[in-house]
Amino acid sequence: MKEFSWPVRVYYEDTDAGGVVFYANYLKFFERARTEMLRSAGFEQDRLLSEESVIFVVRSISVDYLKPARFNEQIEVSAKIIESKKASLVFEQSITREQDVLCNGTIRIACLDAQSMKPKPIPIAMLEQLT
């Protein structure tokens, strides 16, 4: 799948006392974009849980904060799969405001069996659709 982009408005609750997005909230923006990417491809995480006993968890993350996002700004959050394995995906993500790159991240997601919490292969239909 090519790069997915999701528009986000920065709300007051996303910011610190100075009106700048709190650093941990960039991770929430990344999470929402990955979820919307899956949804746009036809995969709802609650259905994956109930029908496939599959959950996805963050295994590792690397983030570079380059410029601040501020209260009430419109930003874009992108997500692109750059690596897929039997039970994991690696996403490259960025947050931009017009031409400015505000934040970049690389996130490894593991696919787990919801009951045992052990690695489980990503459903074939999902891999075929996303990669």
Automatic annotation (TrEMBL):
It comes from the Bacteria. Keywords: Hydrolase. The keyword Hydrolase applies. It holds the Pfam family 4HBT_2. InterPro entries: 4-hydroxybenzoyl-CoA_TE, HotDog_dom_sf, Tol-Pal_acyl-CoA_thioesterase, YbgC/YbaW. The keyword Hydrolase applies. Belongs to the 4-hydroxybenzoyl-CoA thioesterase family. This is Tol-pal system-associated acyl-CoA thioesterase.
